[in-house]
Queue: 4 jobs
Job 1
Amino acid sequence: MTARSSILVADDERGIRELLTWELGAQGHRVETAADGADALERIGEQDFDVLISDVRMPKLDGVEVLRAVRKLAPDIEVVIATGFAEVEYAIECVRNGAFDFVQKPFHVAELLAIVARAIERRRLRRTAGLYEASRVILDGQEAHRLVESIIRLAMQAMDADDACLMLPDSDGGLYVAHSHTLSPEVRGDTRVKLGERIAGRVAEVGTPLVIPSGLGADPRFADLTSDGRVRSSIVYPLAVGARLVGVLCINRLAPAARPFRDADLDRASVLAAQILLALENARLVTQVAASERLASLGLLAAGVAHEINNPNGCILLNHSFLAESLSRFGSVASTLETERRSESQSAAWTAWKAFGGAAAFGEMCDALAGIGEGAAQIRDIVHDMRALSRPQNHEPMVFDVNSAIRSALRLSCAEVRGTANVSMALDADLLVRGRPDRIVQVLVNLLVNAVQAIAGAADGRPHEISIRSSSEDSGIVIRVADDGPGIRREHLARVFEMFFTTKDGTTGTGLGLAISREIAQSHGGDLTVESTEGHGATFVLTLPAAAGCGER
C-alpha cells in the first residue's frame, strides 16, 4: 500500500468525488473534496496537500485557472488534470502550466491510482532532493562567519518560507539573533530573549519543536504574548545536543496568501534541523581544533624562544655575579682611599682615584650593576613564564595562588602595556585555586592585551588605566581586569565569546582569544563574563572555585 498522503479532489460531479474518495481512501490516503475551483483554492490555502486532482470544466474557476493559481500558492503540489473533453489545446495548456499528468474521462480507476502514486513519489523526491541539496551546501565546509547566513538562506529555500532567523546562546544564558533574513542589524543587536520568554525562549527551555499555523494572535497557547501580526505561520525548532542548547531555528511565512505550516511540515523541518545542528557542531569542533593547533604552535615557538633567550641570559647572570663579587672586594680599596690619611706615598693613588670620580663614580657603578642584575632577573622570570605556557597539555593540575598568575601575566604583557596605560593592582592575599597556572596566565595575558588594544583603538590622547583586582567572594576567587577604554557596543556584548567573532581587523584579531579563554575558565570549574557600557570601558570577570585544602601549596 502507498504511504498515507493527502489528496484534494476538485470536481463539480458528485459521483466522481465520491468514487475517488472511496478508491483513494481504500489506498490509505486522506481525501478531501471541492465542488468548484474557488473552493479548491480556499482549501489549498488552509491545508497541505500532496496531490490535486482537478476537473477542467468547473464553476467559478476552471481547471487551467486553478492550476495557474496553485503554481503560485503552493508550487510543490502535484496537479493531475481530468477532463471529459479530448481537446489537444487543453492538454498542451495544462502541461505548459505545470500539470503532472492529463487523464481523460471516463478514466480507468487503476490507471488514475497509478498516476496518483507517481505524482506522490515525484513530490517526495523533489522534497528530498531539496533537503539533500540544502544539507550538502550547509555541510560543505564553509567559513564560520558565513555559515549562519547560509543556514538561513537554505532553510527558507527548503521549507518554502519567506523569512527565517537563527538564534544562538549568548554569554548570559539567553538567546541573540545570529542572523535573520528580514531583521535589520540594529534590531538584531537589540533583540535578546531569555529562556522561558517569548516563543523562542519557551521552545528552547522545553526542547520541543512547535508549529504555529495561523499566527501568534490566533494561537491560544500564546494568549499572553503580543504580536505585530507580521508573521502568518511559523515553525520554531530547538537545536540541542543532549541538555546543551545550541540554538533555535525560526522559519516563517509572512505573505498573507501564503499556505500555513502544518504538523506534516515538521518532518522536513526535523531533517533540516538535524543537518543544521551537525553543521554548527562541526564548525565548533573545527574552530576548537584550529585554536588548539594554533596554541600548540605558539607553545612550541615560545619554548624555542625561551630556550634561546635563557642561554645568553644565564651568561649575563653568571658574569653579573662575578662582577658583583669583584666590585665588592674593590669597595674595601675605595673605602681605604677615602678614609685613610693621605701621605706622599699615597698621592699617586689618590690622584688616580680622584680622576676616576671617587666615591660618587663607584656608587654609580654599583647602581648600574644592580640594574643589570634586576633586568636579567626579570628576563629569567619571563623565560620561566614562557616555559610554563608551553608545557604539554596533560600537565597535572596543582594548587597555586592566582596572584602569582597575575604577576606572570603582567610580565609577559609588559611590552604591550608599557606606554599605553598605567596598571593598578589590588590583590587580596592567599587566593588559592586548583588547576593549570599556565592556562590561567594565558587567560589573563589575553585580557590584558585586549584591554591595551581597546585603549589604543580609542586614540583620544588622554591617560588611561588598566586595573586588576583579586578577591575572595561567595562565588569563589574573582579576578577583575578593567579598562577605561571605549567599552563594548551593546549589539556586540553578547557575542564577544563567540568563536571567530571580532571587531578588530585581520592584523590584530582572529576572534579566538576570548572564546578560548572562556573555555579554559569553564574547564577549571569557573567562568569568564564581561560587563561594559559603551563609552565607559569594560570589565572582564574571571571566577574560579577556591581550592580545598589550602595547605597543599
Note: The chain has four domains: 6-135, 142-263, 286-390, 394-553.
Job 2
Amino acid sequence: MDEKLRAEQLRQELNEHNYNYYVLDRPTISDFEYDRLLRELEDLEGAHPELITPDSPTQRVGGQALDAFRQVVHQVPLQSLQDVFSPEELRDFDHRVREHADRVEYLVEPKVDGLSVALEYQDGLFVRGATRGDGAVGEDVTENLRTIRSIPMRIEGAPGRLIVRGEVYMPKKTFERLNEKRELEGKPLFANPRNAAAGSLRQLNPKIAAARGLDIVLFNIQFWDGPAFETDGASLDWLKSLRFKVIDYALETDMARVQEEIFRIGDGREDYPFDIDGAVVKLNDLTERASLGETAKFPRWAAAYKYPPEQKQSVVQDIVVQVGRTGVLTPKAVVAPVRLAGTTVTNATLHNQDYITEKDIRIGDTVIVQKAGEIIPEIVRVVTEKRPEGTVPYRMPAVCPVCGAPVVRDEDGAHIRCTGAECPAQLLRNLTHFASRDAMDIEGLGPAVVESLVHAGLVKTPADLYRLREEQIAGLDRMGKKSAQNLLAALEKSKRNDLSRLLFAFGIRQVGQKAAKVLSARFGTLDKLAGASMEELTAIDDIGEITARNLVEWFASPQSRHLIAQLKEVGVSMVSTAQPVGDLLSGLTFVLTGELSAFSRKEAGAKLEALGAKVSGSVSRKTSCVVAGEAAGSKLRKAQELGVAVIDETQFLALLGEGDADRAQVLALIRPEDPDREKA
C-alpha cells in the first residue's frame, strides 16, 4: 500500500480508538494492538517526515520544552460565576432571572473542580489552547493540551473559527497513582487533584504533562462564526456530535426540580471520575441570556451552588500511627463508623502532633467529622462537654512503631520522621531512591521492578539487591532472561560507583548530591567520613550544623552500621574516585541555557563544578556568567538585560581547557577585574 495512504488510514484508525477509549470509555481493541498500530505510524512518519500532520496521534507525546508561556488575550472573556451557598440564595437568583426573562429553563450540571481552558479550532484543526488566567488574559498551553487524548486534534463539521471552553482535570484514580509514585520517589505529594492538574498543565516540558494522564470535559461554546444556537443545551449536543467530551446536564423549568437535581449531583459526587465543588445552574435560552447581560464580575444568568461540607458526630476509638514510605509518622484517628458525602468513614487524618495538641483530641472524645474538600475525612473540633473522665492528652511515640529506631522532628517542625536506614515501612521508597539515576544509577531498576522484588520477598535491604540471582529476577512479572541479565549487569556496574553516589543513595537528611560530592572528595572513604566529628564536618564549606548532626546521628544508628556492613560484604565500593576539585572558577556562579552540542546540561554543570564554580538554574544580579547554547531563550535575554557576562559553546570549551580559543580571554570576560587569574 502507498505510504501516504497507509499513514492516513492509521491516523483515522488510531483517532477512532482514542475517541472510543478516552471519550466514550468503551475501548474496542487491546492496549497491545493499539501500541502496535501507533508504532507502525511512528515508523512510517520517521521514514517519511513529510507525512506528519498536526492531528497525528504521534504528536500527542509532548514536544520540546518551553522557556516560558506566551500570553493569550481571550477574544471572549472566560468569566467566573457567582457563588450561592443555600437554597434561599438560589431562590433569590431565580427571582432575579424571572424578573427579566420570559422563558425560564435551567440547565443544571456538575461543577468540575479543575482548571478552566479555552480551545481554539480553525477550519476544524486545533490551533491553540490557553488557560483562563484572570479571565481576560491567559497562558498559551497548546503543547500540553495536545497531550490530552480526549481533545480531538481535528473535527469535522465546524468550518471557520470555533472556541470552546472546558475544565481540565486529573481523574481521581490517576491522582492516587501519581501520589503513590511521588511518595516512592521521595517527592512532595500533591494536595488534591485540582492542584495536580494545574501543576501538570503548566509544565514547561510537555513530556511531563503527557505522562500525567490529564482529561477534559467541555461545557461552553465561547465563539463560533457559524449559525447561532437557540439554547445552551443544543450547543452542547452539537459539540458532542463533533466527538468532544461534554459535561452531562439536566434541563428543569421549576426551581424545586432544580434543587432536587443539585442535591442528586451532590449525593453522587463519589461516582464522578473527577472532583466536583458544586453544581452550575444556567439559563438555557441564549437570547434570554443576552437580555440579562452581566455585571462587572459575573453573568446574571448563571450561578454556582457550592455544597457545604457535611458534618457529623463520631467518637475517637483509638489513635494509631502509620509510617509512610518517606519515614514520616502520621497519626490517624480511628472513629466510630459514620456516613459522610456518600461513603462510610472509619478513619480521620490527624496530620501531626501540633494538630492534635491544638484541637486537644484524645482517645474517647466525641468529635465533629467532615470531609476536607469532599475527599479526606478530618476532625473539625472536639465536643468537650461530652468528654469522658480519665482521658489524657495524646503524645506521639519516641521510636518508630515499625522498626523501633529513634524518631526526630524535621527542622521546620512539621513532621516527625523515623531515622531507621532499614525500616521496612520505608523499604520501597529507600530502594527506589537507592537505585535512581542520581544515586547508584542502576538501569532497569525502576519503581515497578522494585515493587515486584519487595512483594516477592526477594529484597529487604539495598544489600539484598546484589544477592539476586538471574532465575529470581526472570520469574517476576514482565521480566525475562534478557531483562534479568541486563539488571544483574547494571547492579554489578553500580558496585564500582564513586563514594558520592553511595552517600547520596543512603538518603541521609540534608545530604543532597552536592553535599555528597563535597564530603566524598574531602574524606575519600566512607569509614573516614563515618568517624568524623561535628567539628570536622562543620569546618567544611557548604556543610552546616544541621547537616553535620544528621550525618553523625545516621552513622551512629545500629541500622545504618548494619546496612554498611552488608554492602561491604557484597562488594560495593566505599571509596572516592573523584579528582580533587579545582578553584579556577571558585566564587563564580554559572547558568546554562539552550542546547550544547558537546555536552548535556548535566555534564556541562559537572564540568563547571569540577573547576570550583556553582551552577544555578536562574539568572540574577549575582550570576557571574551565562553559557548560551543553541535556541537559548528567556535566561539569555535576562542576562543581557542585567549586563551579565555571556559566553557561547566555543568559549565554554576554552574555559574548560578543551577548545582552541584562549582561556585567558574568556576568563577576562567573566572576571574583568582580574584578567590574569588562571590556575590549572
Note: The first strand starts at residue 71 and ends at 73.
Job 3
Amino acid sequence: MRKRGEYGILILAIFFFFAFFGVALNFFSLSQKREYVRTAADSAYVTIHAGESGGTIYDRNFQPFVNTEKRIAAVAVPSENSLEELLQLGVDRDFIERKYEKGQPFAFECVRKGDENEGLTFFEIPERYGEKISAPHIIGYISDGKGVSGLEYAYNKILRTGYTENSVTYSTDGHGNILIGGGKSVMRSTKDKSGVVTTLDSEIQAICEKAGSSLEKGAIVVSDVKNGDILGMASFPQYDMNNLSAAFEDENCPMINRCLYSFSVGSIFKLITACEGIDEDLSGFMCNCGGEFSMGELSFGCHNRSGHGTQNMKEAMTNSCNPYFISLSQCLDMSKYRSLAYNMGFGREIHLASGIISSAGVLPSVEELRVPAELANFSFGQGKLTATPLQINQMTCAIANGGKLRLLRLIRGITIDGETVSNEKSALSSRVISEETAGELRKMMIGAIYDNENSKAAPQYVRAGAKTSTAQTGIFDENGEELCHGWITGFFPASNPRYAVTVLAEHGGYGNDSAAPIFKEIVDEMMNRK
C-alpha cells in the first residue's frame, strides 16, 4: 500500500511539473511576440483623436477652395473639468453627459473655445466643404475618406497622405488612470497647409458661376491666351457636395462636367473654314447668297431665307452665312483643311489631370469629307463634327495669341506650405497658323460683334471679338421644335487680347440670345474687377 501511494505521488508531481513547464513556455513565447510587447508598452499612455485635416485645393493665388471654414473641437479629462463647464462649451449636451459619466478622456465638438488646462485642449479643424463650394465639378468630392471625382480623386494621395490627426496623448498609471501633471503631448496637424495649386482665379471663377446661373444646362471656360491657364471653368447646373443624393436624382444631370463633354459646334467652326481659305490665298473669295445652297438633290438653307446677296469673307462671317462657307469649302484642299482642324485641337483629348480629360469629340476623316453632303455640313460646323467647350476655347486662344496654340492647363503644381509652388511647368505651345492669318480672323470676330447691329455680345467697358453659333442637334422637344445649342467664343481686349471666353448654352437656342449676353456679362465683370 505504501509503495502504491508513493507511486501515485510521483505521477502527480510529474504531471504538475510538465503543466508548469507548458505554462512557462507559453508565457515566454507570448512575451517575445511583437504585438504583445507593443500592447504592454501602449498601456503607459492613451491618445484621444479630435479629428483629421486634409490637404487644400488652392486657386492660383493660394486662395482655398476647400477647408475654408473651421470647427472647434476639444479633448477633455472628466476628472479635471466640471460637467457644467463642458456642457456650456459643447454642441451635443447628451453626448457630453454620457462620456463624462464614464470618466475617461473624450473628444467633443464645441460652440466656442474656452480656457485650456492640463485636462482640456482645443483644436481648430478645417471643414472640408462649407455651405457653398465654388468649382464643384473641378474639386470633386470624397466618400469614405477617399477622393471619388475631380481633383479630390486625381490628387487623393497628396491630399490625404501624411500625419493628419489632431490629438492629445496622456501618460497613464498601471490601472489606466490619467496622470495629470506628467505632461500631455498635443499633435496639431498642419496638413491643410499643403495641397494642390490650380490655375483658377477664384474671383473669375465666381464671375463665371454667377453669370452662368441663368443656364439650365451649359458650360463656361475662361483662359489666359498667353499661357493657356484656365482661369474659370464652370458647368451647369452645379451641385452641392454636401447633398449628393439630390444631384444624382436631378434629371439635368448636374454631376456631369459639361466643359469636358462634346457637343455639336455650329457656326463657330466657320473660323476654321475661313482660316484655311486665307492660307490657300482665297481671302478675296466672293459668293452670292440667294438664301440656300443647292448640291444635286440636296439643299442647304441660310438662316436668312431671302439671302445676303454678294458678300466677301468678312461680311459672310458677320452674317454667319452658310452658303458662303459651303461654297468656299468646295475650293479647299481636303487634307490640309482637316489637318488644320486637327492642329487646332479638334479630334484630340485635353488632359487636365487624372480623371479630368476632355473628350476628343468627333472630327470626320478625309474619306468621310469626300462625301459632298458631309463636306458641306463640315464647312459650317454641322454633321458628324462635335467638340468640347475646352477645345473651342483652346482654338480661340490660338487665334487671339497670334497663331500660337498653348495647351490648356488646370494645375500649377504642388505646395507644401500654402505659399510656394513646387516643380511648376509652363504649358506646351506650338504655332498652328501664321500671325497674319490670326490677325485676319481676329478682325472678322471683332466685326461679327460691331458690324452686326443685332449682336448682344458687345461689352460695355472694352472692345472684344467673338463668334456665335446655333448648332442643330437632331433632337426635338414634345412640340416638335428642334433643340439647338447656343454658343459664343471670343477674346478681349480686342487690340491686345489677353483672355478667351467660351460659353455653351445646351439646348439654349440661338447663340446670340442664350450665350452672347453671358459673354458680355463675364467680360464686363472682369473689367470691373480690374
Note: The chain has a mean pLDDT of 90.
Job 4
Amino acid sequence: MLRQDLSTTERSSASPLSQSPVLFQLDADGQILSLGWPGASHYGLSLNEWVGQAFAGLIPEEHPARAAIAALQETHYSTPTEVSRCELEIAPCRLRGRLQIQPTVSPLGAGFFGTFWVDDVTDCLGQRGRQPAQVRSRQLTQITWNIRRTLNLDTIWQQTVDGLGSLFVSDRGLICPYTPGDTTIQVVAEYCPPDCESLLGHEFVLTEHGCLREALALPQAVVTLCAPGDQASDRIAMLAVATRYKDTPNGMIIMQSPTDAPWDDLDLDLVRELADQVGTAIAHATLFNEGQALANELQAANQRLRDKHQELEEARQQAEEASRLKSEFLANTSHELRTPLNGMIGFLKLILDGMADDPEEQQEFLHEAHKSAIHLLNLINDVLDIAKIEAGKMQIDMGPVKLHELFQDVENFTRPQAEQKGLEFFMELPPTRDDIIVNGNYQRLLQVILNLTGNAIKFTHEGSVTIRAEIKSQKTRFQDQDWPGVVKVSVIDTGIGVSLEKQDRLFQTFSQVDGERTRQYGGTGLGLAISQRLVEAMGGVVQFISLGEGLGSTVTFTVMLYQEPVMTTKEVLV
C-alpha cells in the first residue's frame, strides 16, 4: 500500500497563538462583561456576540462542568474556583482546557475574573483543526506567497509540506519531484510528527500505486482509503495531487490523515490550487537553477579559455626565448668553432709557406695546430652529443667501472691544466679495502668528470680544485634492479661562482648564464647540460651549489654502486 510505514499520531491542531488563554470578566450574576482570546482571529470567531450572555452558556450541556458552573452561579461565585477539566463551546469551535474563576472588585462593582487555559481545539463537527474557510484561504495565500518568494527548490519543497501539514493538520505530508517518463518518485521533503519514522529518500514505484498514476493523469486531487490493519478503525485517507506547469506534471504532493473524510470539497480545491502554484514555483526555480548552472559552466569555460590563452602566451614567450637562446648559442658557437679552425689553418699555413726558421719552431707550429684540432673536436663532440640527446638517439651501454681507474685518467688529463694555472689540485677517494666499482659507462663517466673539472679549472683563477667521492649505502632501484647504494662525486672549486638568480639557467640547453662570460672564457656552454643528461641516463642526479659570485662552486653527481666495498678507517688520496 502507499501508506508504507506511515504511522498516525494524534496531536493538538492548535497553534501557539490558539493555545493562548481565554480571558473573561463577569458581573455578580455571572453575565459576561468582556471576553477575549488571541486565537479567535485564527479560527475566524466573533466574541462580541457573547457579551451580556451567561457564562454558563459557553459550556456544552452534556459536559459535567455545566452543573458545577450552574451551582457556582447560584452562590454568585463567592469563592475562587478551579475546574481541571472543562470545555467551552464558541461556535464553530470547542475548546478543552482548565478553568479558573475568582472574585474581584472593580469600579463597576463586585464581579469575577476568569482564565481558561486552552489545551486543545476542535470544531463542532469533531474534525480536529478544521479552520473556517476564510482562515484556510488566508493561510493558503500565505503559503503561496512564501514559495513564490524563493528560487531555492529545497525551500519550496519544505515550505509546501510544512504549510499543508499546518493548514490541514495532516498526519504526514510528502513531496516528490517528477519528470515525465519516470517510473519512480523519491521523497525530498516531508512533514510528520517527531515520533514517526522518516521517509526522506524513500522511492515509490509508480506501477505499484494506482492512486499516484491517477493523480499524474488527472488535473484534480485524488483521495483513496486504505486499511493496512484488520480493523475498520485502522483505515486512513490518502490524498495525492500532481504539481503542474503548463499542464505538464513536475512533482507529486502526498498527504495522509487518520480519518475517513478529512478533506471537504473546499479543501480539495485549495490543495489543487496550491499544487498549481507549487508547480509554477518548481518550474521557475528549475529554470533559474539550470540558467545558473549554465552561467557557471560558461564562466568555467571562459576561465578555461583564459587559462589556455595564458598557456599559449607563455608557450609563445618560451618559444621566442628558446629561439633567442638558440640564436645566441649559434652565434657564440660559430665563434668558438672558428677560433680553433683559424688557429689550425694559420699554423699550417706558416709551415706550408716555409715561415718556420728551424725544425724546432716548425714542431711548435704543428703542436699548436694539433691542440687547436683537439679543441675543435671537443666542441664538435659537444654539439653532436646534445643533438643526439635532444633527438633521443643517445645509447649508453652500462657495466661495472672501477672508480680508481676512472679517477686516475681524470688526473692525467686535468692535473697539468690546474698546475699550469697555479692551482692546487686534490683527488679524494673513500677508504676501502677493495676497489670501488660503479655501474655506468666508462667513457661517458669520464666525459662528465672532465667536463665538470674543466669548468672548475677554467673559472678558477686562484685557490684549488678538488674531486671527491663518497659512498652512500642506501639501497636504490634502477632499471628494475636493486643496487646496494650510490657514489656521490663532487667537483669543488674556489672560482668565480654563480649568482643565485642565474643558477636556474645552468642546465638549460642552448642557455648560457652570461654571454659576455662565455665569450671571455670560451666554450659552447653545453657542458653542464650534456653532463646532466648523461648522468640521468645512468640513473644519477646532478646538483649545482654556489653561494654567489666570487664564492666558488660545487657540482655533484651520483652513480649507482655496483657492489658495496669493505670500508677502512684510512682515507685514500689519489
Note: Residues 23 and 115 are 5 Å apart (CA to CA).
